[in-house]
Amino acid sequence: MEQLNQFYQENIRDSFFTQEQTNQGLSQLELNQFIQKLLTTIDISELAELYFEQLKTTLQLSSLKIQYEDNLLDLGDIVSNQHSKTLTCMDMNNSVATIIYGFSEPMSLRNVQVLQQMHIHFSYPLKNALTHYKIKQFAMKDFLTSLGNRASYEETIMRLVSHANRHQTPFGLIMLDMDNFKQVNDKHGHNEGDNVLVESAKTILKCLRDSDYAYRFGGDEFCCLLPEANEQTNQLIAERILAAIEESPLLRKHKVSCSIGSANFDINDNPISLFSRADEALYQAKRTGKNCIKAG
């Protein structure tokens, strides 16, 4: 991925053509400047921001929606009596994204042509950004369980800490360790051990809210990040996970339970201190007799 980024220039940041310049359509020079601007990043969110800002200047765009896979990038504001135009980005006869453009006024024929021109040239870097996004998502997942991996956790907790410091909103961290998992591998082999880990991951996910995140750190250790969660929310979700694991036929068959440690972010925390408190609470739960919850 770093090799891909070498092709993206970082020094093209100034606006490059105005609405007055586009009254007669875009010249080849202006198109080249537009393309250069889009080549300053391969991050899909940054790319969408650049595109939106230029369209606001060039065509007085009021809103932009980019739909890809199960994701939606939503920029700008919907205005009353908005006029929308929907265009698709294609790759080998397959739709990879749908873009909905919103304007406050009806578009002239010339502006429709300019929009189509800009849309076509935006499609190429967008497809590259989507490929980069898919590679990054794949690299952020645990191969066995499809949960996030440690790298994904690190990225998310940095974002949550930043958000919590700006808005004074709490979030929770839950650490989980599967009790008696080693005996599954010892008695039944690693294939059955993998089945137990997959079942554990599915069970944890079912107990979380849509806004929560789940990760596997390796072995039989899992953790969850819970945005905008207080201590009571942590406890409620931890209890839900504990009960669901006890009710799983496969996990009950192998006498696999779960020890849980939790901690809530406060103003004096950083990612390391928060993790340490949750991790220490987990070890307290293990020392207490397993299959229980401790808060740090």
UniProtKB/TrEMBL annotation:
EC number(s) on file: 2.7.7.65
Pfam families, per the entry: GGDEF
Domain GGDEF: residue ranges: 169-296
Keywords: Nucleotidyltransferase, Transferase
Matches recorded under InterPro entries: Diguanylate_Cyclase, GGDEF_dom, Nucleotide_cyclase, Rev_trsase/Diguanyl_cyclase
GO molecular function: diguanylate cyclase activity
The protein's name in its UniProt record: diguanylate cyclase
Source species of the chain: Paraglaciecola aquimarina
Organism taxonomic ancestry: Bacteria, Pseudomonadati, Pseudomonadota, Gammaproteobacteria, Alteromonadales
